[in-house]
Amino acid sequence: MKTTPRTARFATYLCIKHETRRRLRFVLNCERVVQNHGVISRLGLECEKEVEDLSDIAVRRIYYLAAVAMVAIVLISAVVVVRPSAPGIGTSSSPKTIQVTGTATVYASPDEALLNLAVQTQGATATEATSSNAVAMSKVMNALAAAGVSNDSIQTIAYTLTPIYQNNVNQSAPSIIIGYTALNAIQVTVKDLGSIGKILDQAISAGVNEVQGITFTLSDAKLATLQEQALQLAVQDADGQAKATATTLGINITGPISVSPGYTFQPTNYSRFEASAAALTPIQSGTLQVTATVQVTYQFA
For a surface tag, which of 9, 115, 225, 234 has the fewest beta carbons within 10 Å of its beta carbon? Predict the structure, then answer.
């Protein structure tokens, strides 16, 4: 309930009306007494003065009553607004939910390999080390091109030049530089996994003396396809769990209200090993797995 000027005026009007009626009754009684007893002047003046006094009192009383009425209306309104609604009347309870987690894994062969190859050279000076490294890496790049690897599939991932120190005979003196080591590392992306052995053989023969790792992975397109398949299976798993739970508890599921998917994928990596010009043992790519996990919240009646 809200207090409005119209409500206040109406309350004031009622108070004034009541007081006015009382005053009129008093005046009429006074006139009746005057007529009956003939006391016109003195009693008439006294009645008139009493009426004036009562008028002032009545006016003050009316305003006081109106103010009290307005305050009461405000307090009642505040109580109505603050008081919480009774349970079950105009209120909606929180939805009843159950939460399940579905998981699914799909398997596939890799369709892409990353070869991390490096050429490391040494020299008495920094120029000698970097120059010999540049010559060796040029031969490697030509060998890769001859093996069918495009320039777009080759990326430089590291290039370092570090001094070689020798401890001084005088231990209090600083170590001395006796040479430099230059290292140039590249990453080669191979789509034809059957050609990995050939590419490694030719690269090593051309000057690669360090194979930092071979990683079998999935292309972006194939990974996206497998993630979608895994997600569909994970959702089916979550739905089956929800239905089984509902049947056991004797409840009716009305539908999902939130879904949170997630994925995990770990490429296969062969750790770093030293390369040699000897024939390499064939490397098997194996099978990769993509896992999807989905957390679903269902509402039930």
Answer: 9
Span 282-292, pLDDT tens digits: 667 789 999 99
When computed from its CA atoms, the radius of gyration of the chain, rounded to whole angstroms, is 49
Give the separation between CA 38 and CA 34, rounded to whole angstroms: 5
Dist CA 295 CA 74 (whole Å) = 51
Nearest-angstrom CA–CA distance, 236 and 227: 14
Q: Tell me: the pLDDT tens digits for 119-148?
A: 999 999 999 999 999 999 999 999 999 999
Q: Do 117 and 213 contact (CB within 8 A), yes or no?
A: no
As given in the structure block, the two tokens for residue 57 are: 């009192």
